[in-house]
Amino acid sequence: xxxxxxxxxxxxxxxxxxxxxxxxxxxxxxxxxxxxxxxxxxxxxxxxxxxxxxxxxxxxxxxxxxxxxxxxxxxxxxxxxxxxxxxxxxxxxxxxxxxxxxxxxxxxxxxxxxxxxxxxxxxxxxxxxxxxxxxxxxxxxxxxxxxxxxxxxxxxxxxxxxxxxxxxxxxxxxxxxxxxxxxxxxxxxxxxxxxxxxxxxxxxxxxxxxxxxxxxxxxxxxxxxxxxxxxxxxxxxxxxxxxxxxxxxxxxxxxxxxxxxxxxxxxxxxxxxxxxxxxxxxxxxxxxxxxxxxxxxxxxxxxxxxxxxxxxxxxxxxxxxxxxxxxxxxxxxxxxxxxxxxxxxxxxxxxxxxxxxxxxxxxxxxxxxxxxxxxxxxxxxxxxxxxxxxxxxxxxxxxxxxxxxxxxxxxxxxxxxxxxxxxxxxxxxxxxx
Amino acid sequence: xxxxxxxxxxxxxxxxxxxxxxxxxxxxxxxxxxxxxxxxxxxxxxxxxxxxxxxxxxxxxxxxxxxxxxxxxxxxxxxxxxxxxxxxxxxxxxxxxxxxxxxxxxxxxxxxxxxxxxxxxxxxxxxxxxxxxxxxxxxxxxx
Lengths: 433, 143
Description:
By secondary structure, chain A is α/β, with parallel strands linked by helices. Chain A is 32% helix and 25% strand. In chain A, strand 6 (207-210), helix 9 (217-227) and strand 7 form a beta-alpha-beta unit.
């Protein structure tokens, strides 16, 4: 355990700590940010009256739209001179949101990621290859600072370039790779198709740290058997801190939430009422220590449930079930849950670039029919038909492999897909009309 | 010495070829020869034009996906069996043709064919050694 004091704290003591930190966080947001002050005042809530965890129900929610409305820095609660880093996520719908970190926030971010890595069995003797994208996305830098904090050898290779990933796994003796689960499958495909001579089981790679997109137990088994590694889930969202909000442990039976930094509740997404422990609903986050950007009752839209068991790993922290869905943008196609973000990931990995795309779902007879239109940019274009046909087939294969659905891929001319406010409309579900 | 081909992505639907040709016409680009490779939903328009770079820029400005590719224009005798002989030569030299198409006009008593090889430079060297006439860009576009 990276930080036994907090990770194995007796639950009563943990609740006291949360209450104490919540009081600080609510007061901090109220006194140092005009948006929060107005929001609290409008809801008739004064942080001075916050006496027990039961009072949480009186605190107003923070929505993604609030972040968009306050773009870029309107939700920061410290002077800009104290903000040392920003991250930004465009999400799958709507406009960009920006989150900020003070020096202390960056330190907490590194700490929680280091705890995750330790939970997967990593130590300073490990070589961790960070194959998440580095940049405004929290994945790359988040894992990077966490791995360094743990004292592991950190390889900042960033995403893509599978051949190079494989070379470094071998040459550097990489023991753990951090990337999206669909990229892990992409590596497995690559090995099968292009590098039959490369035996990944003979390398030192033994574990994978996967997150940034919902993935199923079926995907876990596939990754584990095809790459010969142990696959762990890391969960997080930039609105809270980034990856490291919660992680699996050796038991792989739910993700422990780092409750000393994040307060979690499960609510009914329709009524906003807090649900009893163990019930499934939308998970809502409140940051307890964040300075630059306090997230107070942030509506994640992620659907899960919370429960506390006697985990064999020794952590007393509450567990959340692996998040498999979001309440807003999930599509159910022929009974399979599909998220536009998964389709986006497939496209990004096949192409190494983010193309404009649109998913069209229709019902032909009794069956759902899926078409994905992909705009052919100059980067994707070739003067040879076989190259463009190959591109179509590769995308179709990955869709089947990762999502378990067959989709027709249509290559279309640039600007074919309608854009609203500069952002393409990602999903057209004709079944509802 | 290589000829620059302008390749354009077009959907196989009414009006799309028209749009591309309109952009080129407005930019004052003259098409010397062209071919279309098509599938059921999209096609690739391949053209030899008098000003390929300008054509490329004009299309790009209109949001049309296009690229420039090096191809070879080769002179072949206009007699029975000449094309077969040429293909035999490429085959013996292990030169793989990705695609080919013909010029509309003859050059003296010879036909001109456009060939796209997977390795242009290797093809060029081999063909010169075999005594084939490779037409220079300048001759084709007539400037």
